[in-house]
Amino acid sequence: MQFDQLRRREFITLLGGATAAWPLAAGAQQPKVPVVGLLSGVSFEGSYAVPVASIRQGLQEAGFVEGRNLAIEYRTADGQYERLPELATDLVRRLVTVIVDIGASISKLTKAAASTIPIVFAMGSDAVEVGVINHLDSPQATGMSATAASVSKRLELLLELRPRASLVGYLDNSRLSAAFETNVENVTTAARIKGRELVVFDAGTEREVESAFTHMALQRVRLLVVGSDPFLTSRQEQIIALAAQSGLPTIYTTRGAVVLGGLMSYGAVTDDMYRVAGIYAGRILKGAAPIEFPVVLPTRFELVINERAAEALRIAVPRRVLIRADEIIK
Questions:
Q1: Which of 61, 57, 89 has its CA nearest to residue 75?
Q2: Distance between CA atoms of 272 and 299, rounded to whole angstroms?
Q3: How does pLDDT run across 152-209, given as a tens digit for each residue?
Q4: Which of 318, 299, 273, 232 is nearest to 57 (CA)?
Q5: In a domain, 23, yes or no
Q6: Are 171 and 212 in contact (CB under 8 A)?
Q7: Comparing C-alpha atoms, which of 77, 139, 135 is closest to residue 111?
Q8: Are 239 and 259 in contact (CB under 8 A)?
Q9: Do residue 116 and residue 39 come from a single domain?
Q10: Is 15 a member of any domain?
Q11: Which of 130, 198, 269, 286 has the greatest CB tally within 10 Å of its CB?
């Protein structure tokens, strides 16, 4: 009897030890979760919360869900673009599988720091013109790129509201000089063709944005085109408020600015852009190479008009423009 009890205690002890070991063994057999490095020049909050959600949607369509079979390392420069190489290097050091890069020309900096890691970008500038890639079938990086024609089209649309305006302002951020110079050249050419004078305003901080509007008033700028720079997108509310105070008709890149009260926007449907970036990243996680996916140019553009903002500016939007609008916010 004592022998049976002893054997039973030994069996229970052995069973308990084996049970405790099972989670360790199971954990050791779990596959390694891939890691995506998400890099942006501005905060992921506010206006950039939507792009992040679209990237996650694209990853999910490719079979990857954060917290389930995917980890994401978030890095933002919060408008201090000079920090981007350091942040990219940190992602490389953490051995992320792929870097998803948000913003105009940021990818050029990322590529220098992450030459061994695939890069997927979604940017509001022309990737070829600003030097992110040498051609549309690049072995080093892929993603979605806007076209250079967008900024010229914004100027054309804005001039239809005030055909007699002779002086037009262009607001952009030179912190990423390649995109800035290219965009300035394109909009300057468009203004010259239309017989208008263009004044360029450079702003990379909140204070510089305020200063730019002060100088616009002093120079009697009659219309304003806002560039697609990520920092300016993150400061949309400030720019919209200053444009309203100045009585200055302004056109933006994305629909989000018009929803917040801006007059008008024209640009690529950004949800598509960021979702495709997520899909590409997911396919790379499955073993594909960036060269398998050519850089995609946007196929859907939208013109959005805020009717109330037009009324506040005492602008009668021509019927020919209203008919072309994809959405009129009332």
A1: 89
A2: 9
A3: 889 999 999 999 999 999 999 987 656 788 889 889 999 999 999 999 999 999 999 9
A4: 273
A5: no
A6: yes
A7: 139
A8: no
A9: yes
A10: no
A11: 130
Write the single-letter amino acid at 242.
L
Are 275 and 139 within one domain? yes
Q: Measured between alpha carbons, how far is 254 from 268 in angstroms, rounded to an integer?
A: 8
Extract the tokens encoding 210. 């305020």
User: The dihedral of CA 95, 69, 139, 294: what is its sign?
Assistant: negative
d(CA 157, CA 45): 30
318 and 172, same structural domain? yes
pLDDT for 130: 52
Instruction: For CA atoms 176, 192, 324, 160, give the dihedral sign.
Output: positive
76 inside domain:
yes
Give pLDDT tens digits for 109-154. 566 666 678 888 887 555 555 555 554 445 556 777 665 567 888 9
CA gap 278, 102 in Å, rounded: 11
Residue 190: give its domain's CATH number.
Answer: 3.40.50.2300
Return the SS3 of 221: coil
Q: Above pLDDT 90, what percent of the chain?
A: 50
- 271-292: pLDDT as tens digits: 778 898 999 999 999 999 888 8
**Please, are residues 110 and 77 in contact by the beta-carbon 8 Å criterion?**
no
Output the CA torsion sign for 106, 110, 94, 28.
Answer: positive
What's the domain range around 80? Answer: 35-147+269-300
Reading the block at residue 289, the tokens are 């190479």
Same domain, 122 and 156: no
Let me know if residue 279 belongs to a domain.
yes
**Is 216 in contact with 159 (CB distance < 8 Å)?**
no
Indicate whether 84 and 156 sit together in one domain: no
- Amino acid present at 11: F
Binning pLDDT at 50, 70 and 90, where does residue 228 land? Answer: confident
